Protein backbone atom coordinates (compact mmCIF):
# COMPACT_ATOMS: atom_id res chain seq x y z
CA UNK A 1 0.00 0.00 0.00
CA UNK A 2 1.37 3.35 -1.02
CA UNK A 3 0.99 6.15 1.50
CA UNK A 4 1.70 9.86 1.10
CA UNK A 5 3.04 11.54 4.22
CA UNK A 6 2.79 15.33 4.38
CA UNK A 7 4.85 16.59 7.31
CA UNK A 8 7.18 19.59 7.34
CA UNK A 9 9.14 18.58 10.43
CA UNK A 10 12.15 16.65 9.09
CA UNK A 11 12.71 14.57 12.17
CA UNK A 12 9.08 13.53 12.46
CA UNK A 13 8.71 13.00 8.71
CA UNK A 14 11.76 10.76 8.63
CA UNK A 15 10.50 8.86 11.67
CA UNK A 16 7.09 8.30 10.08
CA UNK A 17 8.66 7.18 6.85
CA UNK A 18 11.02 4.73 8.49
CA UNK A 19 8.39 3.43 10.90
CA UNK A 20 5.63 2.89 8.37
CA UNK A 21 8.07 1.33 5.90
CA UNK A 22 8.84 -1.26 8.54
CA UNK A 23 5.13 -2.00 8.68
CA UNK A 24 5.20 -2.83 4.99
CA UNK A 25 3.88 0.43 3.53
CA UNK A 26 5.49 2.16 0.56
CA UNK A 27 6.03 5.73 1.69
CA UNK A 28 6.43 8.96 -0.22
CA UNK A 29 7.03 12.03 1.89
CA UNK A 30 6.41 15.71 1.11
CA UNK A 31 6.91 18.75 3.32
CA UNK A 32 4.66 21.37 1.72
CA UNK A 33 0.93 21.71 1.21
CA UNK A 34 0.92 22.75 -2.44
CA UNK A 35 3.21 19.88 -3.43
CA UNK A 36 0.90 17.56 -1.54
CA UNK A 37 -2.18 18.80 -3.41
CA UNK A 38 -0.40 18.31 -6.69
CA UNK A 39 0.74 14.80 -5.77
CA UNK A 40 -2.72 13.82 -4.51
CA UNK A 41 -4.24 14.94 -7.78
CA UNK A 42 -1.78 13.35 -10.15
CA UNK A 43 -0.37 10.30 -8.39
CA UNK A 44 -2.00 7.17 -7.11
CA UNK A 45 -1.83 6.67 -3.35
CA UNK A 46 -3.92 4.39 -1.17
CA UNK A 47 -4.07 6.82 1.74
CA UNK A 48 -2.43 9.98 3.08
CA UNK A 49 -1.17 11.13 6.47
CA UNK A 50 -1.50 14.89 6.68
CA UNK A 51 0.06 17.30 9.16
CA UNK A 52 -1.90 20.51 9.73
CA UNK A 53 0.83 23.09 10.37
CA UNK A 54 2.60 23.31 7.03
CA UNK A 55 4.84 26.13 5.82
CA UNK A 56 2.88 27.26 2.75
CA UNK A 57 -0.81 26.37 3.01
CA UNK A 58 -2.44 24.84 6.03
CA UNK A 59 -3.18 21.09 6.09
CA UNK A 60 -6.88 21.86 6.60
CA UNK A 61 -6.77 23.87 3.38
CA UNK A 62 -5.10 20.96 1.56
CA UNK A 63 -7.86 18.69 2.80
CA UNK A 64 -10.62 21.07 1.78
CA UNK A 65 -9.25 21.71 -1.70
CA UNK A 66 -8.60 18.02 -2.27
CA UNK A 67 -12.06 16.94 -1.10
CA UNK A 68 -13.83 19.51 -3.27
CA UNK A 69 -12.28 17.72 -6.27
CA UNK A 70 -14.34 14.65 -5.51
CA UNK A 71 -14.20 11.68 -3.20
CA UNK A 72 -10.56 10.63 -3.05
CA UNK A 73 -8.45 8.45 -0.81
CA UNK A 74 -8.66 8.10 2.99
CA UNK A 75 -6.81 10.86 4.82
CA UNK A 76 -5.60 10.68 8.40
CA UNK A 77 -4.75 14.03 9.97
CA UNK A 78 -2.03 14.61 12.57
CA UNK A 79 -3.02 17.23 15.10
CA UNK A 80 -1.46 18.93 18.07
CA UNK A 81 -2.69 17.98 21.50
CA UNK A 82 -5.75 19.84 22.80
CA UNK A 83 -6.53 21.47 19.48
CA UNK A 84 -10.15 20.27 19.60
CA UNK A 85 -11.24 23.03 17.21
CA UNK A 86 -8.73 21.77 14.64
CA UNK A 87 -9.95 18.21 14.97
CA UNK A 88 -13.54 19.23 14.34
CA UNK A 89 -12.57 21.32 11.35
CA UNK A 90 -10.73 18.34 9.90
CA UNK A 91 -13.40 15.75 10.51
CA UNK A 92 -16.05 18.07 9.09
CA UNK A 93 -13.69 18.96 6.25
CA UNK A 94 -13.34 15.36 5.14
CA UNK A 95 -10.62 13.74 7.24
CA UNK A 96 -11.29 10.05 7.82
CA UNK A 97 -9.44 9.89 11.10
CA UNK A 98 -6.98 11.86 13.22
CA UNK A 99 -4.13 11.13 15.59
CA UNK A 100 -2.67 13.37 18.25
CA UNK A 101 1.08 13.94 18.24
CA UNK A 102 3.35 12.43 19.41
CA UNK A 103 2.40 9.57 17.14
CA UNK A 104 2.82 5.93 18.06
CA UNK A 105 3.80 4.20 14.81
CA UNK A 106 2.02 0.97 15.68
CA UNK A 107 -1.20 2.85 16.27
CA UNK A 108 -0.80 4.84 13.07
CA UNK A 109 -0.17 1.65 11.06
CA UNK A 110 -3.19 -0.03 12.66
CA UNK A 111 -5.43 2.93 11.90
CA UNK A 112 -4.26 3.07 8.30
CA UNK A 113 -5.12 -0.61 7.92
CA UNK A 114 -8.59 0.10 9.32
CA UNK A 115 -9.12 2.99 6.90
CA UNK A 116 -8.01 0.95 3.92
CA UNK A 117 -10.18 -1.97 4.95
CA UNK A 118 -13.22 0.18 5.65
CA UNK A 119 -12.88 1.72 2.24
CA UNK A 120 -13.16 -1.70 0.66
CA UNK A 121 -16.02 -2.70 2.92
CA UNK A 122 -14.09 -5.57 4.48
CA UNK A 123 -14.32 -6.45 8.15
CA UNK A 124 -10.87 -8.01 8.24
CA UNK A 125 -7.53 -6.97 6.75
CA UNK A 126 -6.66 -10.53 5.75
CA UNK A 127 -6.70 -11.13 1.99
CA UNK A 128 -7.23 -14.57 0.51
CA UNK A 129 -7.05 -16.24 -2.85
CA UNK A 130 -7.26 -20.02 -3.25
CA UNK A 131 -4.73 -21.41 -0.72
CA UNK A 132 -2.90 -18.12 -0.32
CA UNK A 133 -3.60 -15.92 2.67
CA UNK A 134 -1.94 -12.56 3.31
CA UNK A 135 -2.25 -10.70 6.59
CA UNK A 136 -0.97 -7.13 6.06
CA UNK A 137 -1.18 -6.34 9.74
CA UNK A 138 0.95 -9.26 10.91
CA UNK A 139 2.97 -9.05 7.68
CA UNK A 140 2.50 -12.74 7.13
CA UNK A 141 1.80 -14.96 4.13
CA UNK A 142 0.51 -18.51 4.30
CA UNK A 143 0.12 -21.16 1.67
CA UNK A 144 -2.39 -23.55 3.17
CA UNK A 145 -1.15 -23.99 6.72
CA UNK A 146 2.48 -23.30 5.85
CA UNK A 147 4.01 -19.89 6.52
CA UNK A 148 5.94 -18.55 3.52
CA UNK A 149 8.79 -16.03 3.73
CA UNK A 150 8.52 -13.26 1.17
CA UNK A 151 10.92 -10.35 0.90
CA UNK A 152 9.38 -6.95 1.72
CA UNK A 153 9.05 -6.14 -1.98
CA UNK A 154 7.58 -9.49 -2.91
CA UNK A 155 5.11 -8.96 -0.08
CA UNK A 156 4.10 -5.57 -1.45
CA UNK A 157 3.54 -6.91 -4.94
CA UNK A 158 1.43 -9.80 -3.70
CA UNK A 159 -0.48 -7.42 -1.44
CA UNK A 160 -1.19 -4.99 -4.29
CA UNK A 161 -2.39 -7.75 -6.61
CA UNK A 162 -4.55 -9.43 -3.96
CA UNK A 163 -5.96 -6.08 -2.99
CA UNK A 164 -6.95 -5.41 -6.62
CA UNK A 165 -8.09 -8.96 -7.28
CA UNK A 166 -9.76 -9.36 -10.65
CA UNK A 167 -8.09 -6.27 -12.09
CA UNK A 168 -4.98 -6.19 -14.25
CA UNK A 169 -2.20 -4.11 -12.69
CA UNK A 170 0.49 -2.80 -15.01
CA UNK A 171 4.18 -3.17 -14.34
CA UNK A 172 4.39 0.61 -13.90
CA UNK A 173 1.62 0.59 -11.30
CA UNK A 174 3.38 -2.18 -9.40
CA UNK A 175 6.63 -0.24 -9.53
CA UNK A 176 4.87 2.78 -8.02
CA UNK A 177 3.37 0.64 -5.29
CA UNK A 178 6.67 -0.96 -4.41
CA UNK A 179 9.18 1.81 -4.98
CA UNK A 180 7.19 5.08 -4.77
CA UNK A 181 9.40 7.88 -5.99
CA UNK A 182 12.60 5.95 -5.54
CA UNK A 183 14.70 6.44 -8.64
CA UNK A 184 16.96 4.04 -10.60
CA UNK A 185 14.65 1.06 -10.29
CA UNK A 186 15.85 -1.82 -12.47
CA UNK A 187 13.43 -2.25 -15.37
CA UNK A 188 13.23 -6.00 -14.70
CA UNK A 189 12.72 -5.63 -10.96
CA UNK A 190 8.98 -6.35 -10.92
CA UNK A 191 9.40 -9.35 -13.22
CA UNK A 192 12.05 -10.77 -10.94
CA UNK A 193 9.87 -10.31 -7.85
CA UNK A 194 6.89 -11.95 -9.57
CA UNK A 195 9.12 -14.84 -10.59
CA UNK A 196 10.20 -15.29 -6.98
CA UNK A 197 6.63 -15.12 -5.67
CA UNK A 198 5.62 -17.85 -8.13
CA UNK A 199 8.58 -19.95 -7.07
CA UNK A 200 7.41 -19.73 -3.46
CA UNK A 201 3.64 -19.87 -3.89
CA UNK A 202 3.15 -21.78 -7.12
CA UNK A 203 3.08 -20.67 -10.71
CA UNK A 204 -0.70 -20.19 -10.95
CA UNK A 205 -1.11 -17.57 -8.24
CA UNK A 206 -0.19 -14.59 -10.44
CA UNK A 207 -1.13 -14.57 -14.09
CA UNK A 208 0.68 -12.54 -16.71
CA UNK A 209 -1.48 -10.59 -19.14
CA UNK A 210 0.94 -10.18 -21.96
CA UNK A 211 1.73 -6.57 -22.82
CA UNK A 212 -0.60 -5.29 -20.10
CA UNK A 213 0.46 -6.45 -16.66
CA UNK A 214 -0.37 -8.95 -13.93
CA UNK A 215 -3.56 -10.19 -12.32
CA UNK A 216 -4.72 -12.45 -9.52
CA UNK A 217 -8.11 -13.79 -10.48
CA1 LIG B 1 4.07 20.91 11.08
How would you describe this structure to a colleague?
The chain has 217 residues and is α/β, with parallel strands linked by helices. The chain has 8 helices and 11 strands. Strands 2-1-3-4-5 form a 5-stranded parallel beta sheet, sandwiched between helices. The chain is globular and about 55 Å long. It starts with a strand and ends with a strand. The mean pLDDT is 91. Residues 8-9, 51, 53-54 line the site of calcium ion.
Could you name the key traits of this structure?
5-stranded parallel beta sheet, 20% strand, 8 helices, alpha/beta, 217 residues, 4-stranded antiparallel beta sheet, single chain, binds calcium ion
Which helices and strands occur, and which strands form pairs?
Layout: E1 2-6, H1 10-22, E2 26-30, H2 33-42, E3 47-51, H3 59-67, E4 75-79, H4 84-92, E5 97-100, H5 105-119, E6 127-129, E7 132-135, E8 140-143, E9 146-148, H6 152-163, H7 171-179, H8 189-201, E10 207-209, E11 213-215
Parallel strand pairs: 1-2, 1-3, 3-4, 4-5
Antiparallel strand pairs: 6-7, 7-8, 8-9, 10-11
Helix pairs in contact: 2-3, 6-7, 6-8
Bound molecules: calcium ion.
Calcium ion binds next to loops.
Short characterization:
With 217 residues, the chain is α/β, with parallel strands linked by helices. The protein has helices at residues 10-22, 33-42, 59-67, 84-92, 105-119, 152-163, 171-179, 189-201; strands at residues 2-6, 26-30, 47-51, 75-79, 97-100, 127-129, 132-135, 140-143, 146-148, 207-209, 213-215.
Amino acid sequence: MRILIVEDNSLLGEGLRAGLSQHGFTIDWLQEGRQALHALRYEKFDAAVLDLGLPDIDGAQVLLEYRTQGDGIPILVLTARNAIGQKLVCLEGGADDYLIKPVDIRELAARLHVLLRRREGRSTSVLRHADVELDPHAHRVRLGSEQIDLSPREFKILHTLLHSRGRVISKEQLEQHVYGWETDVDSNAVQVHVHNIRRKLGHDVIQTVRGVGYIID
